[in-house]
């Protein structure tokens, strides 16, 4: 096994300047260029004209169009729940990001770059193949996949090669990845569809049901960021929200409290906690003893929700810590694979090794 890992790692580290890491997230895409750093951090959104299928904008410009366009223009997220849901649009989005000159891709002459891409822990073979094929069609020479939990652990400075058990919870946009790691492998893990997007939807649903106000996607996300919490605040406040009255269709303003927003967020937060408890129950006792000592590590944008660490700690009786710069944990982990020759790769095998094993089994 170690020989296979070393072979894969040697392969990755021969990328030279053509090595590119991608955190292809439901909400945001981050791209890391070997020797250069993170050069792209853009929303995973594509605006298209439905009449002729022409792409009008990608990334930040496309997200700014959400809820502000005529009927013939729609903003699409080509990834849902961490995996590709619209292959054609995903391919064109990846190609666009790879071709951007502002950041160095063109100036580095990166024709046919080799990619390392983070994928959800529970991604199926079909979903993995879709990510690979979209990357190859977008111009990549090769695409190698790493589970996001492993990448996030690396990016959080966790020694994943150690026999000591570590539990990492990556709360992203579309999914929450929970995994117990030891000896460079995922001992038990899950991927649930309760994360940042579900929190936004819960806020929208609450405001609609209680106040008969329709909120847009961007507005509900902003409320979560500014006023959302998972644990009581020292100073609860009231603030004003503006939206469209469902009955009259006219603008409407109401005062709402941070307590109500926390109530709105309760369901997705409880789903995340239930997922963590399920993984704990499936994990060998020795490893759980390790986790009780070192604590649960939180990563991903959702871990920035105020008090979510205290909420999880209270529910599980485990110490909980939020990783430094948690929104970039996955891409930082991928960057370590690309940059550091002393780190053994966590992928089970390289794509070439997998293909070789398939040929052997067929023969």
Structure report:
This protein folds into three domains: 145 residues, ATPase, nucleotide binding domain (Nucleotidyltransferase, domain 5), CATH 3.30.420.40; 92 residues, Nucleotidyltransferase, domain 5 (2-Layer Sandwich), CATH 3.30.420; 71 residues, ATPase, substrate binding domain, subdomain 4 (Actin, Chain A, domain 4), CATH 3.90.640. It is 39% helix and 26% strand. The protein has 13 helices and 18 strands. Strand 15 and strand 16 form a beta hairpin. The two termini are 22 Å apart.
Give the tags.
five-stranded mixed β-sheet, 3 domains, Actin, Chain A, domain 4, Nucleotidyltransferase, domain 5, 363 residues, alpha+beta
List the helices and strands and how they pair.
Layout: H1 2-12, E1 19-24, E2 28-33, E3 37-43, E4 46-49, E5 54-58, H2 60-64, E6 73-76, E7 79-80, E8 83-84, H3 87-99, E9 114-119, H4 125-137, E10 142-147, H5 148-155, E11 166-171, E12 176-182, E13 185-192, H6 196-211, E14 213-214, H7 217-227, E15 238-245, E16 251-257, H8 258-264, H9 266-282, H10 285-294, E17 296-299, H11 308-316, E18 320-322, H12 329-339, H13 351-362
Parallel strand pairs: 1-9, 9-10, 11-17, 17-18
Antiparallel strand pairs: 1-2, 2-3, 4-5, 4-6, 7-8, 11-12, 12-13, 14-15, 15-16
Helix pairs in contact: 3-4, 5-12, 6-7, 9-11
Could you give a short account of the major beta sheet?
5 strands, mixed
Strand percentage lies at: 25-35%
Helix content: 25-40%
CATH homologous superfamily annotation of the largest domain: ATPase, nucleotide binding domain
Q: List the domain count as a whole number.
A: 3
Report the C-alpha radius of gyration, rounded: 21 Å
């Amino acid at each position: 096994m170690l020989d296979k890992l070393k072979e894969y790692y040697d392969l990755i580290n021969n990328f030279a300047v053509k090595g590119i890491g991608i955190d292809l997230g439901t909400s945001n895409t981050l791209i890391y260029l070997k020797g250069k750093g993170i050069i792209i951090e853009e929303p995973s959104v594509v605006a298209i004209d439905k009449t002729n299928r022409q792409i009008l904008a990608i990334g930040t410009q496309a997200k700014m169009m959400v809820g502000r366009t005529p009927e013939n223009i729609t903003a699409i997220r080509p990834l849902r729940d961490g995996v590709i849901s619209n292959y054609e649009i995903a391919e064109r989005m990846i190609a666009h990001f790879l071709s951007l000159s502002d950041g160095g891709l063109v100036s580095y002459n990166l024709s046919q770059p080799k990619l390392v891409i983070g994928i959800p822990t529970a991604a199926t073979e079909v979903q993995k193949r879709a990510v690979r094929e979209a990357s190859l069609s977008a111009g990549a020479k090769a695409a190698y996949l790493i589970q996001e939990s492993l990448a996030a652990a690396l990016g959080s400075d966790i020694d994943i090669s150690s026999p000591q058990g570590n539990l990492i919870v990556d709360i992203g946009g579309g999914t929450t990845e929970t995994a117990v790691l030891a000896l460079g492998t995922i001992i038990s893990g899950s991927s649930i569809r309760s994360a940042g997007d579900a929190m936004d939807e819960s806020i929208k649903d609450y405001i609609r049901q209680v106040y008969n106000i329709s909120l847009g996607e961007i507005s509900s996300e902003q409320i979560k960021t500014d006023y959302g919490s998972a644990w009581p605040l020292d100073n609860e406040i009231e603030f004003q929200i503006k939206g469209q009255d469902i009955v009259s269709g006219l603008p409407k303003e109401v005062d709402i409290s941070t307590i109500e927003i926390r109530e709105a967020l309760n369901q997705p937060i409880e789903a995340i906690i239930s997922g963590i408890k399920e993984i704990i129950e499936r994990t060998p006792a020795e490893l759980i003893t390790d986790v009780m000592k070192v604590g649960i590590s939180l990563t991903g944008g959702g871990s920035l929700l105020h008090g979510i660490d205290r909420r999880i700690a209270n529910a599980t009786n485990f110490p909980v810590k939020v990783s430094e710069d948690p929104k970039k944990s996955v891409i930082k982990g991928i960057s370590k694979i690309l940059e550091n020759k002393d780190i053994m790769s966590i992928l089970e095998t390289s794509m070439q090794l997998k293909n070789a094993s398939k040929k052997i089994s067929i023969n």
